[in-house]
Amino acid sequence: ALQFLAMFIGGFSVGFIYSWKLTLVIISISPLLGGSAAFFAKKMAQMSADGQTFYAAAGAVADEVITLMRTV
Prior knowledge:
Elements: H1 2-18, H2 20-67
């Protein structure tokens, strides 16, 4: 975690040195990007859970069909 914090601080330091205007734009847009990433992560988790529910129901039906088949 310390390495990532050092990279973060170093990256912004270099950004401010070379192009402080662009760095300020990136800082102002970062909350929007973070919020949208959190929204999509939550949506994908919900869709994955729904898919697992459908697969579980299909598996139950398939199991019931296979176990009730009679052999001749």
